[in-house]
Amino acid sequence: MQDIINIIFNPLVLNILVNMAIFLIVTLSLNLEVGFAGIPQFGRMLAVVVGAIGAGAIAGRFMAFYYGLPWGDEYVDETLNFKIVSQINDHLVNSPFQSIMMLIIALAIAAALGGIIGYLASYPAIRLREAYLGITLLAFADAAQTIGKYYDPLAGGTEGIVVPDVFRFIGTGQIRFLGSTLIIFFIGFLVYLFLQSLARSPFGRALRAMRDQELAAKVYGKDIVKLRAQALIIGGAIAAIGGALWTLYTGSFKALTYNRVTWTFWPWAFMMLGGTGNNLGIVLGTLVFSTVRSLIYAYKTELTTYIPINPNWLEYLLIGLVIILIAMFRPQGILPEKPELPIPKKKIESIKASLSKGG
């Protein structure tokens, strides 16, 4: 029993789990847009950073206003932000109900902003295709990060801000990180179930039809513009939840840390490894990469004696190598996409059996 407790409280295990949960949410949102809808989404960072701003700056201001504290420019002021957030945390630590409600409000604000970003991104998605759309979305993401980085009244600029700890009621130290990890993991599980049900719904099949043969989908009466917009809105909202959870977990927001490598290209690598268009494959790809990345971070000092390069660059080399190898030898990923039948397989078999008897 003690061995199990030690494993659960192991910082390395917690790091793997929380990274997997956060990136699972972000990569599942990417898979909806790329794997199911066929949209070249190279601006995933856009919704993530907007969700983080929503949870850290906007929801934080709401909490300050709710508790009668300064919530204007003072909230993001370098000298006052920590004091205001400390007073908010004093209220949250003694009220699990208020903490959970603030968590829900923060995620709702983030999801709403992510959905709005997805809706705005749908306009170029209507007119542009392939690489042109991908580059445009990538530029939008960089623009959002630049605004967050240099416009101080938004979220502290280059200095960033401290974020209210909605998980403080769980406890402090390892207890806090264990509890927050389990909550985030549970949210990731709910996102997976939601997108799985969406993939098996008529909407999911319509997205696949648009991806595989847009002209045929139009002939069958599918509104391509509406489908693209809906995919981007849902994907943006989910990715924003991932960004919000990360800033709430770390307890701070700094736009500089939200870069395209971590929040766009890593999810692409996770998706390609697991299997584009397969949500279960996304779970596998995210687990594998999160484990490897965490191990590299944990044992980088030991690795220095065995490899001829700086271990800090190892994960970047690993991701680049994996993407190249997947593209060359297994472009469908570890778990390729499976066709989703409109009715259960057992029912199809029973219909076949009844037809054969009737024949």
Tell me the number of structural domains.
1
Mean pLDDT: 87
| Inertia-based shape | globular
Q: Briefly, what CATH class?
A: Mainly Alpha
Tell me the structural class. mainly alpha
**CATH topology annotation:** ABC transporter involved in vitamin B12 uptake, BtuC
Percentage of residues in DSSP E strands: under 5%
Query: Would you identify the regions where 5 or more consecutive residues have pLDDT less than 50?
Result: none
Q: Strand sequence of the main sheet, in spatial order?
A: 1-2
Specify Rg, calculated over alpha carbons: 22 Å
Spell the H/E element sequence.
Answer: HHHHHHHEHHHHEHHHHH
The count of β-strands is 2
Helix content: over 70%
Question: Mind summarizing the main beta sheet?
Answer: 2 strands, antiparallel
CATH architecture: Orthogonal Bundle
Query: Can you count the helices?
Result: 16
Distance between the termini: 61 Å
What is this structure's SSE topology?
Layout: H1 2-8, H2 11-36, H3 44-66, H4 81-92, H5 96-127, H6 130-150, H7 152-155, E1 161-162, H8 173-199, H9 202-212, H10 214-219, H11 224-250, E2 252-253, H12 260-274, H13 279-298, H14 300-303, H15 314-329, H16 345-358
Antiparallel strand pairs: 1-2
Helix pairs in contact: 2-8, 2-11, 2-12, 2-13, 3-5, 3-6, 3-11, 5-11, 9-11, 12-13, 12-15
